[in-house]
Design brief:
Number of domains: 1
Shape: globular
CATH superfamily: Alkaline Phosphatase, subunit A
Helix content: 25-40%
CATH class: Alpha Beta
Strand content: 15-25%
Number of strands: 17
Radius of gyration: 22 Å
CATH topology: Alkaline Phosphatase, subunit A
Number of helices: 14
Structural class: alpha/beta
Length: about 450
């Protein structure tokens, strides 16, 4: 969602609606929904599947690398030695080891991951964002449940405004910017989250806002009643006022209200640093990854159906390990991700929310089987692993497999379209449901098939 104030939607959202950004009505089978929420953890840059969840200990050294596999709580499934927390929860997790597509560049790969389709521009990226055509998972879920009253349908966090690439993959696409996500900004220096759309000037009380709203209704009643654009504007204003008045959303974002022990489980010390450990761990400063997943759990409790957690550019690190792959993973990336994701799974389970919340953790691609001359691995979309937990997933199983070198699917190949179909199916939405773009062309919400074997 665009930056928001009292006139929050007038600049960012109204033009798309006025231009016919909404597609024709599509029906959803909400009565058959198996989940209420989805948390999609996006590991931007492309984590190495070969050094995490699909290790090849019998491969040559230039493929297997220095990390060792360890046994897990699921018989027959091994993961990296630097994922000890997740190893103990593998009986709650399913691994899809045969995901593949054809995009070798970050933006196009991320777009296909979050929409289930390659963008019209093909496999490319460039300076500055590429316009998004197809809507993201969260946007589709929002659109098909748009008549369900909620303060927020789709949120993304942390939205970092400095030193990040605005990857064009999580917005409304042809549905219009009305269905872009609600952005929650994160500051790795202070550990605080904020949403500009929840701010109001200090001298503008809720009572004064209410009086302004009543006056606007009186002045605008004729246009609202007689034009489609007036009706859309009225709905957007209602949403804006609802956000300003939403105590539930305000409360959910205050993660400092969580007990110290809960914060430590996610890897947060009471002072905001990673709990315990040596100087290298404290160099993380405030662990934005752990805080983001803790906030995601609070947003699930606040009733938000779709939550994207962007796991990138945290403490200066992302998963794009072209050089020093093993040093980056061991020192910076795996410890925090392992602890925080395991804590999220346990936390949801203990609160009775895991069955109704699907957790997905994925990058836009994996890394090359062969280690390069810089001790790194390069982009590899031909085969990689996606982690699923909760949402009815039968834990302790692996779907699909890669070949002996981890290079290509060997069995039960899976595409981002299949992953999209799986997510929609868990929300009770048929992948065959059609949406229409601005030229009135119909598009299925997903061309793939749900991975039904993963679920009881």
């Amino acid at each position: 969602m665009q930056r928001v104030g009292l006139g929050m939607f007038a600049g960012g959202l109204l033009p798309a609606a006025a231009e016919g950004g909404e597609s024709s009505t599509a029906t959803s089978s909400s009565s058959s929904a198996k989940i209420r929420s989805c948390i999609f953890v996006f590991c931007y840059g492309g984590p190495s599947h070969l050094d995490m969840f699909d290790m090849k200990p019998d491969a040559p050294p230039e493929i297997r690398g220095p990390f060792k596999p360890i046994a897990t709580s699921a018989p027959g499934i091994q993961v990296c030695e630097h994922l000890p927390h997740l190893a103990k929860r593998m009986h709650k997790v399913a691994l899809v080891r045969s995901v593949h597509h054809t995009n070798r560049l970050h933006d196009s790969a991320a777009t296909e991951l979050f929409t289930g389709r390659q963008g019209p521009q093909g496999d490319r990226e460039e300076f500055g964002p590429i316009p998004q055509f197809f809507p993201s998972h969260g946007a589709v879920v929002h659109y098909l449940h748009r008549h369900t009253p909620r303060d927020v349908h789709h949120a993304v966090l942390p939205w970092l405004f400095h030193n990040v690439i605005d990857v064009p993959c999580q917005g409304g696409g042809f549905l219009g910017s009305t269905y872009d996500p609600f952005r929650i900004a994160g500051d790795p220096k202070t550990g605080a989250f904020r949403a500009d759309s929840l701010k109001r000037p200090r001298n503008l009380s809720l009572a004064r806002i209410s009086r302004r709203r009543n006056l606007l209704n009186i002045l605008d009643v004729s246009r609202t009643a007689t034009t489609a654009s007036g009706e859309q504007l009225s709905a957007l204003y209602d949403r804006a006022y609802g956000l300003l008045e939403s105590k539930r959303l305000h409360t959910a974002m205050q993660i400092d209200h969580e007990p110290a022990e809960t914060r430590r489980r996610y890897g947060l010390g009471t002072d905001g640093t990673r709990g315990g450990g040596n100087g290298a761990e404290k160099a993380y400063g405030r662990n934005l990854r752990g805080q983001s997943l803790l906030l995601a759990r609070r947003l699930v409790e606040a009733g938000i159906p779709f939550i994207n957690v962007n796991d990138f550019r945290q403490q200066g690190q992302n998963w794009d390990s072209h050089s020093d792959n093993f040093g980056q993973l061991k020192k910076y990336l795996l410890p925090a991700a392992d602890q925080a994701l395991a804590a999220l799974i346990d936390d949801l389970d203990e609160r009775g929310l895991l069955e109704s919340t699907l957790v997905v953790a994925a990058g836009e691609f994996g890394r090359t089987p062969r280690i390069n001359n810089n001790a790194g691995r390069d982009h590899w979309p031909d085969c990689y692993t996606v982690l699923l937990a909760g949402g009815g997933v039968t834990g302790g199983q692996v779907y699909g497999s890669s070949d002996a070198g981890g290079a290509y699917p060997d069995r039960d190949a899976v595409t981002p379209a299949d992953l999209a179909a799986t997510i929609y199916d868990r929300f009770g939405l048929s992948p065959r449901t059609a949406l229409h773009d601005r030229s009135n062309r119909p598009w299925r919400i997903a061309d793939g098939r749900p991975l039904s074997r993963l679920f009881a």
